[in-house]
């Protein structure tokens, strides 16, 4: 299995897996299987130190700040043994935004909605009636994917973005 996984060409890799499963390969993939493949990498022993990732050695650049693919996140040594939900990922986007409330309104179900000057629409989870149009607010990321909004008068509100 490791030998097949190390093959870079998709057709050759499929032909290798087919051979392991004792499944006859079709003519198109058998031609690809004849192509030379890269040698399998040496097995990594549990007690051998892992080589430092290139991103950790090189200074951060704009290219290294790009979103990582799920395969790249899983290949990170920090994520070894973690489930996908536990893996260390970086948050994309800003940690906070500063804006002014343009419109504060309520819908038929009693939820308080507010539109910010940047066009975003948020709902306030625990409104106490102190919010009004023109208030300067800062919305920050909080725990477990939630967001907190802070006003200039030091009041905080749990909010959720709608649009």
Note down, in words, how this protein is organized.
The chain is elongated and about 70 Å long. 20% of the residues lie in helices and 23% in strands. The chain is of the alpha+beta class. Among the domains are: 2-34, no CATH class; 96-161, OB fold (Dihydrolipoamide Acetyltransferase, E2P). Mean pLDDT is 75; it is low at 45-64. The chain is built from 5 helices and 6 strands; from the N terminus they run αααααββββββ. Strands 1-2-3-6-5-4 form a 6-stranded antiparallel barrel. A hairpin with a 4-residue loop joins β5 and β6.
By DSSP (H or I, 4+ residues per run), the number of helices equals 5
What percent of the residues sit in helical stretches (DSSP H or I)?
10-25%
- CATH topology annotation of the domain at 96-161: OB fold (Dihydrolipoamide Acetyltransferase, E2P)
End-to-end distance: 47 Å
């Amino acid at each position: 299995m490791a030998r097949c996984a190390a093959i870079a060409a998709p057709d050759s890799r499929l032909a290798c897996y087919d051979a392991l499963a004792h499944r006859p390969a079709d003519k198109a993939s058998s031609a690809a299987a004849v192509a030379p493949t890269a040698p399998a990498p040496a097995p990594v022993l549990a007690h051998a130190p892992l080589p430092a990732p290139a991103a950790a050695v090189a200074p951060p650049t704009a290219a290294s700040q790009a979103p990582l693919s799920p395969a790249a996140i899983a290949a990170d040594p920090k994520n070894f043994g973690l489930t996908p939900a536990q893996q260390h990922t970086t948050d994309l986007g800003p940690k906070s935004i500063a804006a002014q409330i343009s419109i504060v309104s309520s819908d038929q179900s009693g939820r308080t909605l507010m539109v910010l000057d940047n066009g975003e629409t948020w709902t306030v989870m625990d409104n106490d009636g102190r919010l009004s149009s023109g208030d300067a607010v800062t919305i920050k990321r909080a725990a477990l994917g939630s967001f907190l909004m802070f006003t200039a008068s030091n009041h905080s509100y749990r909010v959720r973005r709608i649009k």
